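Supplementary notes for students who missed Thursday's class. We covered one full example, reproduced here. Read the sequence, then the structure, then the short commentary at the end.
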Amino acid sequence: MILVYVEPIPDLNDLAISKSQGRVFERGKRVMGPATEAAIASAVRLGGEQLGLIVGTDDDTGIARRGLALGLNRVILVAHAEAREFDGLVRARIAARMIRETGARLVLIESGLAEVAFRISEATGLRVGSLSSGLEPAILRVGESSTRPRIPSAIDIVHAAKKEIVRRSADSLGLPADDLIPRRVVRATRLVQP
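Structure (token representation):
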């Protein structure tokens, strides 16, 4: 089984900037990034069963549907109200638990998520490599240019709408409550004028 780790990202076209508060606000739902789409395309090309894993909120069902339309067989959405605040360590602990639970032997993750990839490696003992390394079992980092993105057809989108998204709460994974507390907390942000 191939597990594709899907990281919801802010929609850069739907951000608001408050100069008075010095903050950037997300106005809409999060989206799937192009590197993650490349990881899904690579998983589909490799064949077998592909499983998507999203650590996010209940608002991320649109991302799950997009993953299904791109060719994933199943998607598990591990939802938590505080998921936007999770750091790489918490995300990796959840992913490692799901890797062990599903028996995935190959994990594809976008190359920009190096912290998460190496923390998953530490927790599972899987080696980290690139898509071209051919390692298995392993965590393979996929870049945006690794493969041509797959564009879902209308039929793929209709079929994806009928597929079930497996929802799990982060609390149901059996992790100690302390494992869901981020170790890195952003206390303040500010805009810097160039």
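Commentary. The two ends are 47 Å apart (CA to CA). The chain has one domain: 2-179. If anything here is unclear, bring it to office hours.
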